[in-house]
Amino acid sequence: MKIGITCYPTYGGSGVVATELGMELAARGHEIHFISYAMPTRLNPANERIYFHEVETTTYPLFDHPPYTLALAVKMAEVAESAPLDLLHVHYAIPHSVSALLAREMSAPRRLPFITTLHGTDITLVGNDRSYLPITRFSIEQSDGVTAISEYLRERTVQEFDIRRPIEVIRNFVNCDLYCRPKDQSRRNEWAPNGEPILMHLSNFRPVKRITDVIEIFALVREKMPAKLLMIGDGPDHGAAEHLVKEKKLRRDVFFLGKQSRIQDFLGLADVFLLPSDLESFGLAALEAMACEVPVVATNVGGVPEVVTHGVDGFLVAPRDVAGAAKYAIEILSRADRGREMGKQARINARKKFCSNDVIPLYEAYYQRVLDASSTAARA
Ligand code: GMT
After folding, report:
1. Does 197 lie in the same domain as 167?
2. Does residue 112 fall inside a structural domain?
3. Which of 106, 233, 242, 265 is the most buried (most CB within 10 A)?
4. Is the CB–ligand 1 distance for residue 152 below 6 Å?
């Protein structure tokens, strides 16, 4: 198939999923055309079946904000014609789904079905905002196919947007060949030269991620034992987190590593992964950590319980329960094996339920169903 994929190219879960999906599909022989305003962070365009089409917005003195949604729609229609594409797959409803809808209409009578994958705040925060809700609902209803990355997100979309059309749950995935624990752990010495346990967090440091809670949790762990914390990513709450680190006199123990493109090189060095978000419709970072045999301490919110099983491959606490999260992190790190058994179980569960080898064929089958339905509708 020839598939156009649109996503946010920035450091965020939906862009990561879209990029990994495109690369997995290309490896399986499909031709993938990424259409966005910048190259997605994790995209390796070396693969000969991967193309990147940059959307450029023209400014004009009349515009305070260049109309990206329209420029994207035009680029989608152009690529669809020249490639030519079989379908478009957009990640994160706003505004990608609206652009795809325009591109489909512009491409008529040529068929250009589009699939919208819902990821999280496109439904739970932004899409829910009164100014966006009607158009988000409209573009979901108008999509030729809609998928959600967890059962939680599917249910929430149906309830809050009163969606009548079916939404397919295709969960996020991880490539367990790439994401695994390195046998050689010597790189830990860079941050933990005396064999201290390493706690880790990875996100885009937005308020919903509660990264100051990560620091608070670590501070409580640090009161009980020597330990180090690696913070991967960047975003609006970085400053607040650094400030807290100084206030708590933890500067020697907390390392901000910034945005990393090969996070698989870091995750497998951790002993515990912390994800204390106020909301996660899935929690991709937790899954990637699990594949690297890292037990997760996370909040019991949204789709996280579909990923982490409390007491088996990690622990779940109520949102903002910093003391509870610290207690579980200490419990894991105080075990004789420092949580290795739980980490191994985490990888087993990640492979069993979320392996890319099993999930990518679900997308392929779904694409085929949407294409079949679209050609049947065209014949009718
Ligand atoms: O909603 C967001 O935070 C944005 C989105 C993204 O683009 O980064 O993240 C969501 O999608 C991820 C990938 O499917 C999920 O793993 C995250 O749980 C989800 N984030 C939230 O629901 C807060």
Report:
1. no
2. yes
3. 233
4. no
Residue 191: domain span: 186-354
Residue with tokens 């037990």: 295
Q: How far is ligand 1, taken at its centre, from the CA of residue 205, in Å?
A: 12
pLDDT tens for each residue of 9-59 = 987 899 999 999 999 999 999 999 999 999 998 888 777 899 999 999 988
Whether 95 and 156 share a structural domain: yes
Whether residue 13 has its Cβ less than 6 Å from ligand 1 = yes
**123 shares a domain with 193:** no
Task: Count CB-CB contacts under 10 A for residue 292.
Answer: 27
DSSP string, 119-159: -SHHHHTTTTSTTTHHHHHHHHHHSSEEEESSHHHHHHHHH
pTM higher than the cut 0.85: yes
**CB 123 near ligand 1, within 6 Å:** no
Note whether 133 and 260 are same-domain residues. no
Give the Cα-Cα-Cα angle 328, 329, 331 (nearest 5 degrees).
Answer: 60
Which strand ranges, in their side-by-side order, compose the sheet holding 145-148? 50-54, 31-36, 2-6, 87-91, 114-118, 145-148, 168-169
User: Residue 45 belongs to a domain with what CATH number?
Assistant: 3.40.50.2000
% helix / strand / coil in the chain, to the nearest 5?
45, 15, 40
* Pocket lining: 191 vs ligand 1, CB cutoff 6 Å: no
181 neighbors 268 (Cβ within 8 angstroms)? yes
Cis peptide before 109 (omega within 30 of 0): yes
Q: Please tell me whether residues 110 and 238 are part of one structural domain.
A: no
User: Which pLDDT belongs to residue 268?
Assistant: 96
Residues of the chain with pLDDT under 50: none
164 lies in the same domain as 192 = no
With respect to residue 326, please indicate whether it lies within any of the assigned structural domains.
yes
The two three-digit tokens of residue 122, written as one number: 């496109």
